[in-house]
Records
---
Amino acid sequence: MFNKLIKLIVVLGLFYQTSVYSKSASFNDFNSRDLSNYFSGIIAFENNDNSDALKFFNASKVLLNKHDAYLKRYAYSLVLENKVAQAINVIKNGNNKSNLDFFDAYILLIADSLKKNNLDQAEKYLNLSLKFQNENRFNLVIFETLRQYLHTFKNKKILINKKNFGNISIINQAFQRCYLKKENTRSSFLNLINNSDGDYSRYIFFYINYLIENNQIEEVKAIADQLEYINSTLLLSQSKSWVENKKFKEFGKIFSCNNHNDIIGEFLFLISNLYSSQDDIEKSNFYLNLSNYLNPKFILNSTLAAENFYLNDEYDKAKKILKKIDKQYEFYYWFRVKKEAQIIIKNKGYNEGINFISSKFSKIKNPNVKMVFDIANFYKNSKNYEKAIEYYTEIISSLSVNSEIKSDLLYRRGGSYERLGNYQKADADLKHSLEINPDDAYVLNYLAYSWLERDYKKDEAMQMLEKAYTLRSNDPYITDSIGWAHYLIKNYNEAEKYIKKAVELMPEDPTVNDHYGDILWKLNRNIQARYFWNYVLKLDDTDEDIKEKINIKIIEGLNNS
């Protein structure tokens, strides 16, 4: 409450003293209730409590055409509450047109014009937004991309003189060619999908969509055959399922290259993803809701909003989004179950979460391999290794000899055996995994670390760790492993070098910090060692058994622990 009061005082000071708001009416013109609601709305808005912010803004609408900053916050809050049409109406009906002079207002008006198929009006609004293109790093991309798309939609041809934004431009080109039904659409999608600069597998869905619209069903089946459920995204897993069940019409129900709103909706979804990757959850949700406004059919995209709310600890909002996901989309419904289980784990603990997902899983008549894989991982994470092994074995026995995912499953099952102390089966699985993929740094790391802990084949283990570190020198877990390996062979100076780097890479990991304390003790830096041990005790993720051991080390020192 004190922090909120401080924020309110600061906001009041700014409004009274800053020239930016000099065009606004005097605060003497407003009654105390309106001001109270408005400032309460600002505080809620700044604290990312958008639902409360909107309630306060709705209660102070008298400011709508009298105070410059009000409209922007109000419209933004409406969009975040998925009331895009209402936000557009507020902007369009504003009496004071100078209040509309901000980038988001023009984006909303462009979306409204596109929705009404008024491309000329959309272009006018875009031109008015030109002065804001350098306001932040994404505005220029949004402005220029919309300019290119509007030119294509209006003139039925691709703009020649245009700015290049790398892979985003490659994506835009593929959709523009698809919209214009160009013969080189196929090559555009293939170039995008096979781009080595990043993961563009999402666009396999749009390529399949394009092929279906052009009745290239055999090619669609060939693409689906190459996909594997376990290592595919939700969208591609769902796509594979639709193809295998000959539900080709499902693709066109949610997207079409012939619809300019669908294309712009997908572009705004891309922008939403970019903001999400930068941890700007509000901006991500803003553009996601705009994307849904233009293409409400693509309800599968709502999983991004659920993920955003989950990452922001807004679990009730995440659950509200998840409830909209219907069972007809089997893979998205399973995502809903997993996310609900994760929320239960956060609120009530792992046992409650695993009971929930196990109950849901047991009610599925024919769970697909993706669901079996996920339930196995849940059991492994909850330390029910016997159950995890059962499900991993079920999947492994169903795989073809040349399956790309077999090595990962062997790694997971081998790790489960190792946790149970069944080292013979653990080693067999992990070595089999390396036979399939000898350069998997994480399998090398796991097997080598296990051997060193058992004082088994130490020379070979060190060689594997050195190889793993060469492959993944900036991975904190592998860095910790090779450092701890040096500790185990009493090479403390070398150990300190690696573990110090691991701490820098992963400063809040209990195990890494505990290891660093042990090494410092061995180097006779006892005060520093106790500092790191004490630090581990304060970390939220420190297990009770680690705390018990550390308490002994702090009192008695490492030699007597």
---
Amino acid sequence: MSVLLTTTCVVPAAGAVLTAALPAGSSEARRRTTKTVALTVSAVTVALAALVAVRFDPHGARYQLTESYSWIRSFGITFSLGVDGIGAVLALLTAVLVPMVMLASWHDADPAPTAADGAADPDTFEGRRRTQAFFALILAVEAMVIVSFYATDVFLFYVFFEAMLIPMYFLIGGFGDRAGGPESARQRSYAAVKFLLYNLLGGLVMLAAVIGLYVIAQEQGFGTFDLPTLTGAIADGSLKLSGTAQNALFLGFFFAFAVKAPLWPLHTWLPNAMGEATAGTAVLITAVVDKVGTFAMLRFCLGLFPDASKTFAPAILVLSLVGIVYGALLAVGQKDIKRLVAYASISHFGFIIMGIFAMTSQGQSGATLYMVNHGLSTAAWMLVAGFLISRRGSRLIADYGGVQKVAPVLAGTFLIGSLATLSLPGLAPFVSEFLVLVGTFTRYPAIGIVATFGIVLAALYALLLYQRTMTGPVKEGVRAMPDLKVRELAVVAPLVALTVLLGVYPRPLTDLVNPSVDATLSQIHRTDPAPAHPVAATSGGEQK
């Protein structure tokens, strides 16, 4: 039995413990040692996640590199891991983004010289431990997210789905954005609590559904949480769920995933969390943690409850459509750069969920690609915005102007992130958004047509943001702004390169995810609609 998946999960978890246990101190040398250790661990995790993706055979079994260890035997709970194409790609995305976040956040956890604005004094225990805590929490989030992408036991997935909230809570509340003004400490606390309460509520509803699924399965001789066993039994009819039971269980799972995703109207925690967090933590939220919600919709909602998924698909598509337009409209009107990116992400997640529940091969393939491409493009956009905010000390759009004249490289990378956000052809998000719209239009043409309005709004908020911050006269607070440094270029360059590469040549991703998409559609007994065309018949070479 291979232990590659377990190793990939254990390395960042062990790295988190090691980072937290390093000798405390406020000296620059000790902080640099902590950061170097954490960055090295994240680099090793990238290599392991890449090895998993390389060893995955798209033409092989649905779940590969499987591992299973007994955990709570009396309830049929195991520590079971297995990877499909979608999980392999999203785990690799997580592994790639974490070192980028660390490099971008290199000085975000350095203790302030005073305790003002809720910052830790470097002479206190909290001040000495601040750097260790920050980077250990990032590694803990990475480990829990990767376990979630690999887990093939429903209960195991639930545990880590909920556990990742704890380090994220401390990252938001304890290491928030210092550019938020004198009330930032209180606002960070509010944002962290709101994030935790919303997601805990979703998790509690899901726990009730997990227990209900187990009770029903046990009554029919399936006393297990093993996902392949349960989905196989449901597919062949040996495990029977009544329509009412399946609908109730589906809603329990979907509610938790919709909060995490976030789907309108369960999205309101996201702008607060991203606005008050550091730029690196904001990337972890929207590009890493939130992807667990959309991934779980594919793996658990559609796999375990195929009939209920088809029953609720039209309603979910309407909610997704509202989220697309609503998020884009609010992004247009934002005065805060980070909240603008947050509302743009709500719009993008609407596209992802719409692609999933369109239940076509193009839609689901596009949704999976969108998870990856949104992660890359939004990470680039948000991290460059973070560099911009750290230089000026303000998140307000009105405080910027003429940046391209004093920091042309920063402005250029920000432009690429903006163009990727509006899905410019040639950049990665275009491919996924196009597939989502085509896949939706073939089954729900009205929804597909209205959703295209979101593209127009995306162009509006992305280009307006660039125009107001980067062009025009140079404002007083911008005149001395330095351009991107070597460390910052090392963060942005790989993200830009991947965004361009996958926009031109997305086949490496589609080859991995398409078999898993086909397997999902087969589970729910869905096929692509036949294309509409004029009916023609021929007889003796003549058209009738």
---
Amino acid sequence: MKQQFSSKNLSALLCVSFITLSSTVFSQNNSSVSVATASNSLEPIIVTATRSATKAEDVLADFVYIGPEEIAQAAQTSLTDLLQQQRGIQVSSYGGNGNLSSVNLRGTSNAQSLLLIDGVRIDNSASGGGILNSIPLSLIDHIEIVFGAQGTMYGSNAIGGVIQVFTKTGGGPTQFTASSGYGTYGTSMNNASLAGSIDDVNKTKYSIGLSQENSSGFNTLATNNNCSPSKQNSCVYATNATGYTRLGATGQISQEWSKGQQLGVSIFASSNKNQYPGSTIDSLDPNLPYGGPYNPLVGQQFNKFFTATGFTKNQITEIWQSVLQISAVSNSQQSIWPPIGVTSANDKIDMPEYDYLWQNNILIGEDRLQLLAEHRSQYVYVTNTPALTGCVDNCLVNQSRTTDSIAGSYELKRGNNLATLSLRNDSISGFNSKVTGGAAYGYFFTKEWRASVNYSTGYRVPTFNDMYSPGTANPALTPESSHSIEAGVNYEGRSTTGRLSIYQNNISNYIEPYYTAGSNLNGYPINIGLAKIQGISAGAQTYIGNFLLRGSVDHLNAIDENSGSFLPRRARNTANLAADYKQGKINLGANLTYSGQTNEYSIKYAPDYTVIGTNVQTNNPYTLLSLYSSYEFEPHWKVFARWNNVTNSHYQTIYGYNNMGSNIFAGVSYSYR
């Protein structure tokens, strides 16, 4: 049955949102925080929304900013877990920090959102979406999340929005930081970074960071998993603890040889090895059921990526800045099953990419014209084994894709009025050209209060797995298309910010798996879906004395119009609360995250694509409480501790897979500035 906003739910959410936003005025009038402190925390410069540095108050798209302090306090928390604590975001994971995970921005899928690291796309070209479990949190300086279709700014995949990770850029006096810690599940983390400048803050800037993580892990196989030993099915997965090892490095150096003329290079490298439960057969005898008895095993998956980017920023004239960026991405994934029985496996995917971007920012009075041209080449080389894919004579995949893009945007500011118009054309090999556009308008009622409305379009090209994976491919797929509209009210004060957004995103040609009656195998993808995603999102943060308080609430209505079902692994309601207290050398904090019930579906179709049945599995609601603290016992030295999932909540974000129980992580850090 189709689900729509009920007047009761909508009224409740609007009341909470009104109270949240109204409290910002009271908080500002009763705050003693200095302007400088508030500016550092609440008035960030946002780059992702417009591809140019823009004050937060002038950004018309809805966004979330995660600063360095919030990242530092996350301690053992992974990037995925940190994102889960943000407004407008839901996550799903196969278990611990090193395992595969996905992020949903405002109800869209992981493959419908774009992940950038320092302006470089980090996609899994084979399966789609960002590779979140391969990014060490300790190497990140800050994060920007921009919601809504961003096709005119970034092309394919930015239907739900963009997550951009920024590393340290250097500059100014030398800064050195290092930390080491140990916690539950035999988890150890060590990291160090160095940043600064040589000769002069406006000349050579540099930064380097290193990270190492290791964990023995825990049993991620839940008792309700169909392959759990308690189910007594033919498949029997291992119940061993499955851990991970992650290494990371980042570096950047740039030279400004004269005012406005800068040349630099940057790198980001990561290697993640995680274990996962599985099983294999020890006989191919056709007289035995399923080919033979199944034996449990622990598989291993390796993810490695390396990005190298060269860039130059040139102030051609007083009004014209040119930015040229050339990047190469080496991205590989390998799945290995040990030689148990007759179905050991060693599947490998290499996904190199090359991107050439030329961006021009031209000032026209108080306005800004942006023109860009981009060429992107993607390649996928796959070596499959029958054990994982069932391939026989089509186990090799060798495919490529190129995209040539031109785009322009115009930003206008007149008194209390803001407006942006943008247009983009992408010529994609194997598909028709895609044209996307956007228009946004904002009006300042006062210096602090602003209302805005935003309309934009986007699209997603089918992944290489969708079109070429052995046994589950459909080469006839066409790109998904989206139309997104949002309206919002923002408050930007000295010590308080608040945002309320109401949005709708319609996605046509939605790609979903096709199962026939009696089929329990992976379905091949088809373009039959229309997804309608509606929601309301509100959040605020404020300083009151020594406290920083944050809160958000989201209500989502995400419907597959073809089947009438709620989109899988999406909760209707989520909320976050956080409090941070600083007094002298002491820092204390708490975070509370709530997620409502989610469902997973296996939809059966008739040959004419009508729905003939639906199997539903349910993940229960959950609430997570985390506590953290730090104490500076000597100048530059701190001890810190974080207690995640204090109440030991047993919860699942993917049916049949456990997440971490109550766990503690503690360590010591050194910082020289």
---
Amino acid sequence: MVAEGTLLWEPTDDIVARARLTRYLEWLGRAGSGYEEVWRWSVDSPAEFWTSIWDYFQVIGERGDGPVMTGTMPGAEWFTGSSVNYAENALRERDGIAAVFVSEDGARQELTHAELRDEVARVRAGLVRLGVRRGDRVAGYLPNIPQALIAFLATASLGAIWSAGSPDFGVPSVVDRFKQIEPKVLIAVDGYHYNGKSYDRSAAVNEIAAELPSLRATVWIPYLTAAAEGQPPRAEPGAAHTGSVPHGEVIGWEGLRAEEAPLEFERVPFDHPLWILYSSGTTGLPKPIVHGHGGVILEHLKSLSFHQDLGEGDVFFWYTTTGWMMWNYLIGALLVGATPVLYDGSATYPSPAVLWRIAASEEVTYFGVGAPYIMASLKAGIVPEGLEALRGIGSTGSPLPPEGFTWVAEQLPGIPLGSFSGGTDVCTGFVGATMLHPIRAGIIPCRSLGARVESFDPLGEPVVGEVGELVLTQPMPSMPVMFWNDPDGERYRESYFDVYPGVWRHGDWIKLNEDGSCVIYGRSDSTLNRGGVRMGTSEFYRVVERFEEITDSLVIDTGQLGQEGRLLLYLTLAEGATLSDALVDALRTALRQELSPRHVPNEIHAVPGIPRTLSGKKLEVPVRRILLGTPVEEAANPDAMANPEVLRHFKP
């Protein structure tokens, strides 16, 4: 065990001097200011701060004469009267490599900035021929391949609205998402590769298209066929792979991009919809979260430059699929002139070290993964090599325990690991790191610039040094402009503002420290509370999943308001391991010693799998509902789950 707060890395004077945040502070005339002082200014004077971001990065567009910020949450408006286009800012004329694509089967492709602009112009013209106009929706059922990036930028250039799902999503899950937004065009692959296997999705695409009567066209990318035949991925599909779609025409990617055309951009209002992302959707239909062009541009310029320290000449790799908001964040590298690495494949095939090897071979300067990958690397005894170009590592998706921080510090001395936390809701991090902050085990160094993050007690009072609800007491430009099909904003208000009126409640437990650093303890609606001792589930998992015999775990407190319940621990065991008395005793002893006697489970059970969302989050709340009597079929939406079959193993 590693003590929380152990100092692991400190920036040298040279690192601080070279940091992009330092350059911004010099430009701002605040070179001598400490970070907390600058953060305070950024949230006390939001109009001045966000205007400085527009000016510093020379955002392309018309800023207009309107106020920078009007109104309050929910419903604050930004840069009234301005007009911008995300694609125009992402596709500035630059030299060199714009993006790199790597797949697990060994394929690799580079796109220069000139080639990317040409491809976007061609696909843009193809979408226009299919009738796509400003405000129309284009849906992608695509892995993390160049065509996904190209299609998104082409869509955005028109002022049309992008929405994507990964091809490992099931048909009902995709239909639940896309049917709500009525896309005019669906762009899809015939299959994908994962973990050394190929998965044909031709039938699934036909089923999805059949459920979308709004379609004018379905565009096929013969990704599997082309790979099998040794052709480029954009080759025309064979007739056997196009199937029969009842709505609109069916064409191939080559047909879509067939004609040369000038690259043009439709400038739109600051809050004009750019893309639609989706909540986890554990119950009911997934919430279609709409972000605007301007908010995403400003937020990603700020976050990628100052918190990831990315800019011209850098190479940015974050392991993600198109179905996770980190894909949208990854491609934001184009906004700051960095090169995104698009990877399609498994994180553990052909080796658990594959992502580290890609980071080495592509000379990545900033490498990001979900926290579980770092812990899996630790357990697998991986020794990352060849990472001379690396300047920073990012972790997100779930809390990273101190042992994960320490492993990175030991394996890659001199490379800071920044843990970030935010969400799909804002497509960024609320809290994170910079190159100016020391790195301490288990600690997130700072609140992000422009994000007024606070910790509230149950009465809505801010607290420091104790665990409370993560809230934002001031709007950010990248907050949703709306939920799709929510004309009166009721779903939006219920999602974030139902507990503290006028204050965004994010649903995480956070402890803010006096110096502005913080610790995230997991979801606030799944926290353990035993005899008044409250602790996030992340600390519980930190103890349990340290055991080699355990590959995954889920802890549930069935207590209700005014009534203490049972504490139940569910384990997925490693191959060959059994839930022996010795293992049970060892777990109970570790939990008693490292957490408290109140945190020793009443029962410990082995299950074949831990239920997770499609984006990999543990489903604690639905399991708790089942244990409190909710029928399994009503507790969670199986189409929003990666493994719905395991739910039946959790019964009262």
